[in-house]
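Chain entry —
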Amino acid sequence: MRIVIIHGQNHEGSTCMAARMLARQVGGEIQEFFLPRDFDQPCKGCYACFKAELSACPHYAALAPLEKAMLEADLLILASPVYVYHATGAP
């Protein structure tokens, strides 16, 4: 089983450890991405991906490894620390 963890923080704190524990319990090949370290550019809101196709996105090449990993994953874990009862916002 291929597992992809997308962390909503750069550090390896308790949220990171919890996501890793879950992935280990499930078992399989684990790949991790830390945002914003692995992708630090927010969406520009240009809607090019909607108007034309995904490859029209100005971030398309930078997002390719993340997109490929997500599409090939059997399980996707989104891990974000909670700050004042909300998930992490844009960097």
Notes: Strands lie at 2-7, 29-34, 75-79, 82-83, 86-87. The helical segments are 14-26, 48-51, 60-72. The two ends are 31 Å apart (CA to CA).
